[in-house]
Structure formats: C-alpha cells, structure tokens
Fold this sequence. Notes:
Shape: globular
Number of domains: 1
Amino acid sequence: MSVIDTRQTSRAAVERPGRAGGGAVxxxxxxxxxxxxxxxxxxxxxxxxxxxxxxxLGSWGQVRAMLVLSTFxxxxxxxxxxxxxxxxxxxxxPAVMTLxxxxxxxxxxxxxxxxxxxxxxxxxxxxxxxxxxGLAITILKIPPFIMTLAMGIIxxxxxxxVTGGAPRGTASPLLVGLFNRDWxxxxxxxxxMVGFTAVASLFQRYTAFGRxxxxxxxxxxxxxxxxxxxxxxxxxxxxxxxxxxGLAGILMVGFSEGATLNSGDDVLIPSxxxxxxxxxxxxxxxxxxxxxxxxxxxxxxxxTMISALGVGAGWRELIYGSVILAALLALQNDLRLWVTRIxxxxxxxxxxxxxxxxVGGIS
Length: 363
C-alpha cells in the first residue's frame, strides 16, 4: 500500500470510525459519561450539604443564583475546552471577554435592533483575535502559553488606553432581561444555556471538526500522518475560544448592566478548573463539554459555600489551583507527560520530527 493510500485510510478511520474505531470511541465516551455523572452527583451533594452552613444556601433561590453565576464559566469553558482538547491553552480569555463586554456596552448601545448586527460583529472581532493567536502558534511556531498570554496583555493595555480606564455606554434591555426576568420561575439565561450546552455537546461528539480535535489531542503525530488539516483545526479552535470569550463578555453586560476593565478577570482559572474537573485531560484527546458544564456548576457551588464562610477571594483562587492540581494527581500518567512538555511549552527547541510544535501548535 502506498503512503498516500495509508494517509487516506488513516484519515477516514479518524473522521468516520468503523467497527474497531467505533468501539474505542464508545469506551471513551462511556468513561467520560461516568465522570460527568459523578460531577453532577457531587454538585447535588454539595448543594444539600450547604444547608448545614446556612438554611438559605440550599434553597431554590440559591440554586437559581448558582445557575446564573455559572453561565460565564460555562461559555468560556466551551472555548477553553476546545483548545485543551487538542492539547493547547488559551490565557487571553480574560482580556478577550473584557473586550466583548466593552464593545457591546460602549459601541453597540441599548437599541434592540442593534443586537442584530452588534452581537455577530463582536463575535467576529473576538473570534478573529483568537484566530490571530492560532496563526501565530501554527505559522510562527510561538508556544500557545506565550502567544495567548501576550495577546491578553496587548488587549488589556489597548483597552486601558482607549477607554481611559472607565468604559461608558448603555446596556441593552434585552440582555439585562436575560438575567432579571422569569420564565416559569427560571431566568431566560438558564434556558439559553441548556440549548447552548446541547448544541456544543453535539458539535464536539458528532462533527468532523470535533473528531479532529480528539484525534489531534490523542496523537498529534498520528493526526499529521493521517493527513488531517492540523494547522486549520488549530486556528479554528483558537477562533472558537475567542468567540466564546466574546459571547461571555456580551452576557456579562446583561448581568452587570455595564462593563469594566476587569469584567473577565475572574473566569480564567475557573474555566480551566471546570474543564479539568469535568474529566478533560490537560493533554487533550479526552473529555466532554457536558463534563465541563458539570465542573462549572460544581465549582460555582463550592465558591458560593466558601463565600458564605467568609473566605477571601485570594483563598478562593488558591482552592481553584488546588483543585486543578488534585485532578492532575488523580491522573498521574497525564501529569508525568504534561511535565515533560513544559520545556517546549515555554519555547525550548521542539522535537526534531519535521514541522512539529507542542501543546496545540502541531503542524
């Protein structure tokens, strides 16, 4: 069999799993589904246990508040997980989310019809910025950690210069209504997130792009040999992460009825923690978005409980970091492999295997 035939056969096996590949996929999804169930059960247990701290914590009102507060981590988590699934990481999330909020608040305005062009435009801008990071990672071979961190710093500095530190504008009543109105006792944003979760989960599991993410994360070299468009998938993954962060910024305007230059500061670590706690491997190739949603709910519930105990924000960040470390220690093989990738992540010489970069920047 020729090399071309081998590449075509391998690519078909990745994108349209047959009997053998399908069995592997089913085994992986079975394990992931068990993780998702465990995370949701733990969330329910925490909610019930929170009543021991205060009777109001386990009430329906507290559950509603938890669902609303977890919205932003869920949305950002989708983009973050898309990148992590292929072994990458997006540290520009806070700045891109803040950009989305400032654009929506200061430039789109409060006219209902403005949302028709404003929302797609903001998503296009933030998605394009994510794609720029993806291009730099794939074409210029800049490690994802460095590139996305630099992008975040540049955006944050530009926003400070343009706004003077105090964005001015008006929040759209329709966005505000997503959070302060009730549909059958539930804020509209909850219904929106149920639909978002369903679409995102189907996108990951059943589209060719989703299968390519898993293939690249599982074995970048095998994906490259199979002829998958690794560069294109990488660029699109970071574009999706940027657009997701922009969407979270848009929603933040509705929640807070305004925008500040720290609108996205509190989502970076929770978004990574939610993805990891939900069962996604930090190396990529394994995990589901439903697990990330469960992780967001679990961490939001936990955060609500420790806030009720009077624990400061600094200690909460410490707890989030501990959760990530604990999840990595639970997967010791992943931890060992991840440690071996640290030098290349920070820009050391990549492996001598043709055009090859590590952690989401494979070509």
